[in-house]
Amino acid sequence: MSEVSLKIILLGDPHTGKTSLINQYVNNEFDGDYLMTIGNDKMTKDIKINEEQLKLEIWDSIGHEKLRSANKIFMKNTDIALIVYDITNRQSFLNLNEFYEELININKRDKMIIGIAANKSDLYENAKVNKEEGEEYAKNINALYFESTATDHENVVNIFEELIKVYIENNKEKKNEDTTNNINNSNEDTTNNINNSNEDTTNNTNNSNELNKKNNSNSKRKKEKKKELNDIQVEKDAGIYNSCNII
Question: Hey, which residues does 82 pair with through a beta bridge?
Fold first, then answer.
């Protein structure tokens, strides 16, 4: 079975927990000490889901606004994007659309799965963004909504695997749709070719019939002319022919 490569990128403001989510998923580790991401780091993970062997490239992105332009290089050809906000920091929620707009300006939306992660759900008592707001935003951009905490390995694994499963399922539907379209186009081409062939055959038959009629008409005139000449010859032989009647 061939291995499928998927590119996953996490986007969002600084301090939202992107690096911690990746580290928890790949290494089953959580480090509460914050280190700002100043470059686009990549981790890899090999997994198997629904009989599909997958090689994941998981990219961490720069959250700081002044350094964020470098993200655009690494956003290209993204299969799955998880945009993260910190529920205890309302501004990180308000900035979600900036990351979303950058993402869809670089990638085709119909081929990409997007998730919104309301991170640090373990700190819900300090939340500045309620669940309904997060769900509504995700719905508006046709994204999946998750509540996450990098302290819980199972929670993080479930988020990544749900995104991957949706991507695989959508890809299968897309391939089936493309196959159906190709079959329909092929059938349409075949029908057109048959119709054109039948039309050509009809035209050729009509042309042949017209030519036969023309030939028959010419043949009839020749016979009539020949008969006329024969009659004249008969009259001459009989001495009845009068040259004054010939014009």
Answer: 10, 115
